[in-house]
Design a protein that fits this description.
There is one protein chain. The protein is mostly helical and 155 residues long. It has two domains: 116 residues, no CATH class; 31 residues. The protein contains seven helices and no strands. About 10% of the residues have low confidence.
Length: 155
Amino acid sequence: MFKKKNRIRKLKLNLKKRGLELRKDSALCSSYINGKTDLDINYIVQRIGEMKYLYEYCDMENIKNQVYNDYVFNEYVKNYEGTISTQAEKIALEKHSHGVYPKIFPWEKNKSEIDEPDDDKELDGGGINIFKIIRTIVVGYLFGFGLMVILSKYK
């Protein structure tokens, strides 16, 4: 159970960094959370971003329906390879972004709109972070010591 909670937390953190959210209906996210995939978390986050791009920016649902209609009702295939979804993805990308995913997704262009997570806070559940406290004390001490040395030279 502990590993599952850590995977959920890690996935949410990585998704949030890219302006994405964990979707309960994502088989890919579910596989990662339940430890049933060896896929890298960066690949998973990228793929979730690609799905958001397709469905929110490229009219994927309508394109998928058109491909389905070609397969079922017209009884022919227009150089289609793979599944209905993979073919719809290919058409959507050709139609909306020259056949490739953008290097930066539209929702990532304005980083100020994305609330960047504080990694330390996210990973420790929002509790007290002893490392930040120690760092603050050490920096304060060093600053005070340095100031003392400087002032002693001017006496």
